[in-house]
Specification:
Organism: [Actinomadura] parvosata subsp. kistnae
Radius of gyration: 18 Å
Low-confidence stretches: none
Structural class: mainly beta
InterPro entries: Glyco_hydro_beta-prop_sf (IPR023296)
CATH architecture: 5 Propeller
Protein name: Glycosyl hydrolase family 32 N-terminal domain-containing protein
Number of strands: 20
Order of helices and strands: EEEEEEEEEHEEEEEEEEEEE
CATH superfamily: Glycosyl hydrolase domain, family 43
Number of helices: 1
Mean pLDDT: 95
Strand order of the largest sheet: 1-20-19-18
Largest sheet: 4 strands, antiparallel
Strand content: over 45%
C-alpha cells in the first residue's frame, strides 16, 4: 500500500519552458501536455489556446512534437480546430499501437451537440502520418451516459488498455442550455470527476465503468481530473487537477492520488493542493509524469504572472 507521494512537492518555477504562449497576455496558453517515451525518443502532445472573442478563439491548435532530450521539441504533426469543425480542442493522448506504430486520441467539442467527446485516429507508422479523416468515436456523452467526456489519458497494463477521462456528471433537469457556451465545464451546472474505460482489443472498443476518482470535499470539490498514472512499488500514483468551482475552471491546481488496481483511488492531497504556482491564478495543471532511469520527468502547464500559461518540464531525482 502506498502511504505517501513518491516524490516531494516541487517548485514549478524551476522547470524549463518547452512551449511559450503566442502573446504575453491572460487567455493565451501553451500547455495541456501529454508525454510518451518510446524507449528512444520523447513524444509530446500539446495545445494552444486564445481568449474567448479572439480570432480562432479557445483551443485552436493541437500538435505532436518529438525530442531526443525531452526538452527541445520539434513539431511533426498538427491540427486546426476547423479541420474537426469544432469550437475547441483540449488534451490529446499519444500511445503505441499493437503491432507497431502509434494511435492518437483526440478531445474536442462535438459540433453536433456542443458536448465534449473523445475520438481516436487510425494507427499510423509515424505520428506525422495521422489523418483526421480517419477519426472514430471512442467515448461520447451518449455512450457514457454523461454530459460530455474529455482529456483522455491512456495506459496499457498486461492485456488491458485503461482510458481515464474527465467527464461532466449527468443530473436530473440538466438541459441543453448548459451546453450553450460549448463548454459545460465553465458554467457550474454539474461536477467533473474522472471516469474509467477499459479495452481488451488494444484500444479499439472500450467499456465504460463510470467514476474512478470522484470530486473531493474541499479545494477539489468541483473537478478532479486524473492526468497521468505511473506504476510504483505497491501500486500506482496519479496526478490530478482539482478546482473548487467553475470560477477556477482555467486555474486548477495539482493533487496526488494512489491506487492498487486502477479502479479505485485514494487522495494523498485531500486537505490542500500538492503543487501550485506562486504566480497569477496559481495553476499547475495537466501534469504528465514519466519515471525514467532514476529520474522523474514532469511536464505541466503553469500560470505566469501576466496571466498567460506556458508548458514546462522539470527533472527530479527519484529518491
Amino acid at each position: 500500500m502506498i502511504e505517501h507521494a513518491p516524490l516531494p512537492a516541487f517548485d514549478p518555477l524551476a522547470g524549463t519552458v518547452v512551449r511559450a504562449p503566442e502573446k504575453d497576455e491572460a487567455g493565451y496558453w501553451a500547455g495541456c501536455p501529454g508525454v510518451l517515451h518510446d524507449g528512444e525518443r520523447f513524444w509530446l502532445t500539446y495545445r494552444r489556446r486564445r481568449p474567448r472573442g479572439a480570432a480562432a478563439e479557445r483551443g485552436w491548435h493541437c500538435a505532436v512534437a518529438v525530442s531526443d532530450d525531452g526538452v527541445s521539441f520539434t513539431d511533426v504533426w498538427s491540427v486546426h480546430k476547423d479541420e474537426l469543425r469544432t469550437p475547441s480542442m483540449e488534451r490529446f493522448c499519444l500511445t503505441r499501437a499493437d503491432g507497431g506504430g502509434f494511435v492518437l486520441y483526440l478531445s474536442y467539442v462535438d459540433p453536433a451537440d456542443n458536448r465534449w467527446r473523445i475520438d481516436a485516429l487510425r494507427p499510423a507508422a509515424h505520428p506525422s502520418e495521422f489523418d483526421v479523416a480517419t477519426a472514430r468515436p471512442v467515448l461520447t456523452a451518449a455512450s457514457t451516459g454523461t454530459e460530455g467526456v474529455k482529456d483522455p489519458y491512456v495506459l496499457r497494463a498486461g492485456p488491458v488498455t485503461y482510458l481515464f477521462a474527465s467527464y461532466a456528471e449527468a443530473r436530473p433537469g440538466l438541459g441543453g442550455e448548459a451546453h450553450a457556451s460549448a463548454d459545460i465545464y465553465n458554467v457550474g451546472a454539474t461536477t467533473h470527476p474522472t471516469g474509467l474505460a477499459t479495452s481488451l482489443d488494444g484500444g479499439t472498443e472500450f467499456a465504460w465503468h463510470g467514476q474512478a476518482l470522484g470530486v473531493g470535499q474541499g479545494w477539489d470539490r468541483y473537478q478532479a481530473r486524473l492526468n497521468s498514472v505511473v506504476p510504483v512499488p505497491g501500486g500506482y500514483v496519479g496526478f490530478y487537477d482539482g478546482s473548487a468551482s467553475h470560477e477556477e475552471n482555467y486555474e486548477e491546481r495539482c493533487g496526488v492520488a494512489v491506487s492498487g488496481d486502477l479502479f479505485g483511488w485514494r487522495r494523498l492531497s485531500a486537505e490542500r493542493p500538492w503543487v501550485t504556482s506562486p504566480q497569477g491564478g496559481g495553476s499547475v495543471r495537466y501534469l504528465d509524469a514519466l519515471l525514467l532511469e532514476g529520474r522523474w520527468w514532469l511536464y505541466y502547464e503553469l500560470t505566469r504572472a501576466d496571466g498567460a500559461h506556458e508548458l514546462r518540464v522539470l527533472r527530479v531525482p527519484a529518491g
